[in-house]
Amino acid sequence: MKKRLLTLLLLAGALSAWAAPDPALVRQLAADDNSDKIAAIQQLAAAAEPGTTRLLQAMADDSLYALDGKLFVFDGENTLDALSGETVELPEGADTITVNNRLRGELANALAALKLFDDDREVRLSAAQELQSNVGAELAPVLAKAKAAEKDAEILALLVSAHAKASLQDADPAVRLAAVEALASVNTPAVRSLLLPLTEAAGESDAAVRNAAVAAVKSIERSLAWGDTLAAVFTGLSLGSILLLAALGLAITYGVMGIINMAHGELLMIGAYSAYLMQSLFRSQFPELIDWYLPAAIPVAFFTAAAVGVLMERTVIRWLYGRTLETLLATWGLSLILIQAARVIFGAQNVEVSNPSWMSGGVELLPNLILPWNRVIIIGFALFVLFLVWVLMNKTRLGMFVRAVTQNRAMAGCVGVPTARIDTMAFALGAGIAGLGGVALSQISNVGPDMGQGYIVDSFMVVVVGGVGQLAGAVWAALGLGIFSKLLEGWAGAVIAKIMILVAIIIFIQKRPQGIFALKGRFADQ
Amino acid sequence: MSAITSVLPLPASGRVPLTLRVFAALDRKAWIALGVFLALALVVVPVLHLAVPPESLFHVSTYAITLIGKIMCYALVAVAMDLIWGYGGILSLGHGLFFALGGYAFGMYLMRQIGRDGSYQSDLPDFMVFLDWKELPWFWLGSDSFGWAAFLVLAVPAIVAFVFGYFAFRSRIKGVYFSIITQALTYAAMLLFFRNETGFGGNNGFTDFKRILGYSITAPETRLVLFGLTAIALAATLVFAAWLVKSKFGRVLTAIRDAESRVMFIGYNPLWYKLTIWVISAVLCGIAGALYVPQVGIINPSEMSTANSIEIAIWVAVGGRGTLIGPVIGAFAVNLAKSWFTVSFPEYWLFFLGLLFIVVTLLLPQGLVGLWKKIMSKKQGAAA
Q: Taking CB atoms and an 8 Å limit, are B350 and A336 in contact across chains?
């Protein structure tokens, strides 16, 4: 009877797989001194015996108790002896082992290292990713062990880099050299700052390792520089596509009527607020379709902005025909009124417009080059709008009339083009495109009453550089200005970049007053 | 010359002396008006401010003196703007830049006059101590001298205007192109001055002035002297402008405004005419800025904001372009309205200003002066 009971107990023990690591180390977890505790955690993790995870997890959860050299794990229901696994009564006076922040970090690292031996691939993968940052020298043995056991290529690559990071502090120069060489192919800013100290005599005594580190840092910097440049080009493209949406409308109205609409930026603002209103509408009426508010906002923004544009043209701009400078002032007045109206209606604070879920996140091309979806989609949207405008201008009767009026108003009128109506239509079209630009802008920047103010100068620069009445000019100028200013920004800072662009444009106008693409034909001003 | 002969006996032959030509720039009524204005500013206002007790109805308060002094500076800017826009046909949306440059140039001197009375008791201006700078940057050299500051007030706007104007006018940038590029110029300058590293106090600009030429800047007497100087500057500018627009130079300028190509074909080079009036206008703005800063007590980069520069244009438009009294009237009308609105109905000021822009351009292209002339000619027509 007694024997059977014992067998049963043994069986139960085997079933629950209560295995305890080195008892001396386990007891050391309850040491008074924190550095003793840390040493125990590190050695336990390095040994990676079965059962260590449970023990360390309990410690991290503040459910590891100690009394007189005995340790107890509280698993939520029962108290178990940490070494034998027997269910016991928690003795009077047993106290949790104090875990400070430093210990907590060590525990997290050790637990992650232990997860490297998990059977589940996903667990191992996430553990290996976690160990890419702040991995200490003490984890090197366990990482080596995990590396040897790992079959999965993706995890193996991560483990190689983690192991190399951990062995950078190794006493043996050969190990360090191997680590530096392994890290040379990992192109992240973190690895660069990890290797940087090793390039100097103070941080690394061995010349061979030092040389390898110098070479590795150089290669990483080259690759990072590529990533940075590509990232700047990409943000430049996305800025350029916004500029394009803002400038297309301006280019059309300037081409047709020769006026600059200073309230053009406020049409962007109207488009952005349309997106905000649609978002609020969907939130309150169709919460399950909230992700689709943005496509719904596109026509609303276009027609709202176009309607405001028609109103502006019919009430103010049409009466100032031929007086371009006065039109500038009158449209500035319109813009003041629109800004203040937005302030009165929506408040002076910025409103919140959030990305639909399908626009958040991004694709990672390089470690330091992530393309956010919202910017990718905006670039695509701008190209789509550009295509529509191109079709409209080149394949329709309205487009032909608009081009005719742009080239020679009097002659177009003589052959029967209704110039006044074309003015209104062109203005509505330009305003509508600005509204679309506002929707795009609402996805990447703040939506507030004076958000449009900054865009009038930039989009006018696009018109100046591109040449009047030329779609191709506007496209090249918008993308060029966008990319150029982002590249300069990375190099000289935003303010200096802006000033340099301005100076460059003034110099450019000296050479080509008509813009990149001048209309062909003979003109005399006045 | 007919205007001159009607007022003065002409020398038998040869050129009319400059003094006489200047004297002939204004007619008798205008000289009287100018005299009355100067008498008010230099005698009546000081007496009413200093001698009349504050509770009296006729007392002129410090607030009123600062306000009127400020508006006179604006009027000076408006006249400068009118020279380039009303007579030259060039709409600048960047005159706030020259105004601010003059203000900053003089503000540097005022900052140095604070001496060790700043919050850090340092020889350096407070903001430099704050930035942990150990010595003055090179462009602050000599800023403790009044003469050098006065020179900078004239020279800096002149040089900036000359360089920019030369390149802009040389490539015949005009119309809205020119307007927008001047706007971009001011905007870029504002961004530059907002930076702390630029060395002009960043966001906060210059403020907390204590002294000017050793006199306390808040003393009523100092205020009155500044007030009087502003009035004299405004009057002198008006006389100068009246002489300028009636001179041969002014006539060519007006011709360029009306038909640039024709003037060119006749054989004039518009570049130098435009450039000259552009630089003169910028210098006048600089002077206005320098008079503005000690009276208002602060200069910061927001003076260069694009909105400020466009407002200058509306002062001129409200008063009447192409007349010299118009800008002065416009500057007073718009700014008095602004002071009243921003206190009584702050929400509606921008609506009002926006409407003003639209109504004036649509219905009053000649401004208030044009309206007055129209009414007068109607009356005369009715009388006849």
A: yes
